[in-house]
Design brief:
The chain is of the alpha+beta class and 258 residues long. It has helices at residues 3-8, 30-42, 60-65, 86-96, 109-112, 117-126, 133-153, 168-188, 197-208, 210-213, 219-227, 248-255; strands at residues 13-18, 48-53, 73-76, 81-84. It has 12 helices and 4 strands. The protein has a 4-stranded mixed beta sheet with strand order 2-1-3-4, with helices on one face. The chain starts with a helix and ends with a helix.
């Protein structure tokens, strides 16, 4: 999208995100999708546009707003405010559009079980030492297991992390988990273990919700996005599979009465 097209349609809010390889749609950045999910949930669609930025050829208009050239960035054209970083953007949006609540700024127990999953994936995928692969895989599995245990033990009021409705924490975590599913499998032959039934159920609900589906990129964009790090494939992936079939018998066993 060029500067001319952006100037023709200029609602109050413009969110600048990483572009897909076609230059026209949302790319693979999970932090950009986080912001787009919250905007989709909170804001009338006629009040904002999503401006995909080619990070290899950043438009002059974008660099004037944000000389560092990082995404996401929110421009409030009415207030002449520019907000950077996904957390700050979501807080800014929430202050203007408080409903639905979405638990923006939540700092409770559930957040502790989500925070280290994506960093562990990044460490695994960027690792160049084969001797450390197992350690990094185990660390990722450990973080996913903590989340799975939380979902099993504390998650009783709905399909999402904090209850029956999508929260800001879900909007943060779901795009990151999709990278675990896609990039983890493609580059490391990693699959979320079938025995992690609560996590599988959470993913099935979360990845199917409208806010996620309307803001997610195609699978191949995630693969291309990680390719820039020149990751060595463990072995060619013959059949791409996002989720193993969970064992519902295992789920019933966990919830069986004594």
């Amino acid at each position: 999208m060029d500067d001319t097209n952006a100037s023709r349609m200029c609602p109050r809010f413009i969110v600048y995100v990483k572009a897909a390889t076609n230059g026209e749609t949302l790319g693979d950045c999970p932090f950009c999708q986080h912001v787009c999910m919250v905007m989709f949930m909170k804001m009338p669609e006629n009040l904002y546009i999503v401006y995909p930025v080619n990070l290899q050829r950043k438009p002059t208009k974008f660099l004037e707003l944000n000389p560092l050239g990082k995404v996401p960035v929110l421009e409030d054209t009415e207030m002449q405010v520019v907000v950077k970083e996904s957390f700050n953007i979501v807080s800014y949006i929430h202050n203007i559009f408080p409903l639905p609540k979405m638990f923006v700024g939540y700092k409770g127990r559930a957040k502790d079980f989500c925070a280290e999953i994506f960093p562990m994936l990044v460490t695994l995928l960027k690792n160049k030492d084969p001797k450390l692969r197992k350690e990094h895989l185990d660390n990722l599995l450990s973080e996913l297991s903590k989340l799975n245990d939380y979902l099993l033990s504390y998650h009783k009021t709905g399909p999402y992390l904090l209850g029956p409705n999508l929260s800001d924490l879900d909007c943060t975590l779901l795009p990151q988990l999709r990278h675990v599913l896609v990039a983890g499998h493609y580059y490391q032959n990693f699959l979320v273990p079938a025995k992690m039934v609560p996590l599988h159920m959470y993913l099935m609900h979360g990845l199917a919700c409208k806010a996620f589906r309307r803001t997610c990129c195609p699978v191949d964009e995630i693969i291309k996005g990680w390719a820039v790090h020149k990751i060595d494939l463990i072995e060619p992936v013959k059949t791409f599979q996002l989720l193993q079939k969970p064992s519902l018998k295992h789920l019933r066993h966990k919830h069986a009465k004594p």
